[in-house]
Amino acid sequence: MTSTLTGTRPLLRVALRLDVRNIAPWVVLISALSATSVLAYTWIFPTAAERQELAATLGANPALALVFGPARDLMTADGFNAWRAGQLGALFAGIMAILTVVRNSREHEDSGQAELIASGVTGRHSRLMVAVLLAVAASVAVGVVCFLLTIACGGGAVATLTLAATFSASGLIFGAVAAVTAQLGSDARTSSSLAIATLAVCFALRGYLDAGDAPAWTVWLTPLGWLERTDPGGANNGWPLLAALALYGALVTAAFALQSRRDFGQGLVPPRPGPETGGVVTSVWGLAVRLHRAMIVSWLIGLAALGALLGSLTGSLGTLFTANPEMARVIVSGGSGATDLTMAFVATILQIVAIVASIMGVQVVMRIHADEVALRTEPLYATAIRRWVYLASNVVVALLGTAIGMTLAGLALGLVAERSTDLSVATVLGQAVATTPGVWVLVALAVAAVGAAPRIRLVGWLGLVATFALTLLGPTFRLPDWALDVSPLRHVPTVDAAAPHWSGLGWLLLVAAALLVVGFAGYRHRDIG
User: Fold this and answer.
1) Is-contact 208 131, C-beta < 8 A?
2) What is the pLDDT of residues 42-94, one digit of tens each?
3) Which of 33, 131, 262, 293 is the most buried (most CB within 10 A)?
4) Phi, psi dihedral angles at 156 (to 5 degrees)
5) DSSP state of 487
6) In sequence order, what are the residues at sequence separation of 6 or more whose Cβ sits closer than 8 angstroms to the Cβ of residue 167?
7) Nearest to 16 by CA among 179, 116, 137, 178
8) Is there a contact between 140 and 168 (Cβ–Cβ < 8 Å)?
9) Which of 218, 238, 266 is the last residue of a domain?
């Protein structure tokens, strides 16, 4: 085994120096998520009465439990921090580790860098070991920085240590998952997609079990449920972390075993052979559909399944609202004017689905810049293709893909919800369609950034993060109306309200069109690549 790891140490030093700029923002984001939770709690809820109201309104809210997990103790800053930052921090740490491992393993094979490294004195497993160790270093850094920063902001030592350890454990587990998928996928994009899909399934399953009041033993069905059982700020139970470490060891061992059995530059799951004739890819529109087809189909299936999964939660809402009428203020998301609390819950659920669908659209847009950097766009422009046509082909896929995704999610949600509530499929589907322009604004923001100024393309992802925070947490933190109005989903009307504010949809479409104009105008005049 030693000979197969030859050269690991110098490769690790170089990789750390090159990759620290990619890892550091994740460390800062996750640590700030925890630290700001402690600061915001003390500032916004200074009295016992306000904290009691917070616990009453949020503690049993299934819509928020889907994302943040169960609120076990909202009467203390540490309990609030564990609720607000626990599952989100674990999700972000998992994404960070996945991207780190794939970037330093399969991505190097795709670019040809791995062949140059292999021409030196290196062992067969040295590159994979470097990728795994980088993920370990990043995960440990998240835990250490989060602990120190949160303690400095007033967090309790034991509770903060437990919470920070769950972030590190999540990074380890899903970094190991990425090490396995890096051996399975035919290229880096497939490998990262498989790993992120695994993380998404674990997160969605954990959310469903929490929101659906499932039996206690079901928490062990997903690794994120194990981390939830540590109960930071409450029991501070460290035993589930041992299970996480055991899973990490098993996955890493499997990854190295699989690497021994695959060809260099290939995956254990080979790609399908291409068609004998060009077919639809002989046009730029068909090419755009073909390039994004696998990802779009996967997202559409996932969104439809998510809609059906969330729709099954609507049957138990009547009892919940009767027992906790104060929850209406939170579920209505800042006062949309809806009188039917079940429909208000569905509208909130569709806002969560909209944020998920937006990720698909932004991914499609971001690939435009990725293809430029990889020099795949220049050969296309050697033909008679115009710039705006190429950009439009990708943008149309992003917009139509998100619209179809929202429609499928709304249809699945409505079909399931109709069985246990008075809601009709048409009403839920109409709400999903009405939410789609809000998704288009987020996609158009990414188009404007990639088209006009790709150096700030991160704005496309920041728009998603800001919308998520303002939509789900803004009312909780009592932000002013002008701040909440920044979220495009804030302007989506509730379709079965007495007087829906349809003008909001007009403004959303206008903003989306303006952002698209900025993107197309910028793409026409800037340098490619």
Assistant:
1) no
2) 888 888 888 887 777 665 566 677 788 887 888 888 999 998 888 999 999 99
3) 131
4) -70, 145
5) S
6) 30, 89, 90, 93, 139, 142, 143, 146
7) 137
8) yes
9) 266
